[in-house]
Amino acid sequence: MSNRIHKAKVKELLIQRDFKGVLDWAISIRNPQRVLLSLTYDANELVKWRAIEAIGKVAAIQSENDYEKVRNIIRQQFWLMNDESGGLGWHAPEIIGEILVNVPSLIEEYGEILLSFLQEEPFEIGSHIAIYRIASVNPKPFIKRVHELTGSLNQPDKHIRAYTILALGEIDPEQIRMVEKEFVSEAEEIRIYDFKTSQLKTTDLGLVVGKVLGRNKIFNDVA
Fold this sequence. Notes:
Structural class: mainly alpha
Strand content: 5-15%
Oligomer: single chain
């Protein structure tokens, strides 16, 4: 089966949110990441995010027999974030994040490295997303470096601020209580991928703060 046919098949599975089908497919071929990585550049935003999510789920299966293979995928993604690579892994931080969420035994080995990309264009948003996701599983690597995250609360990008709030909510919620008044009235809409439902949702910074402090839900369904 050609790469093009594999890609079309997996894209349809992702559209259907059939992760079981994706995993069944992944264990039937030698290098499923090649197809999934290509789909992280798909024009369909939902396909892109589900491909990122699927990469993490596939890594979990691979780690059962071959930890080094998973490590190599993570190292490759970090390499693509390096100018010397000659390439550009636009979604490398998110991919690394999802792999570590699904293979948490590797978090302390690689998670902290993402902090060095918080202000590295074009990886700022992706690095904040990844740290939030990782911290939701194991915040330990970030506890002593919270100050590097709190600086992002002043970033002009609303998505960076949102994911910083979510990350700090997992690592040190007291940091959010101290700046709560600055964000609760911010109602400008932001778009976020909800990993619990694998759907794109809308929210705002006020709702994100409320979520972190346990006061309300975070998402509204995208129409």
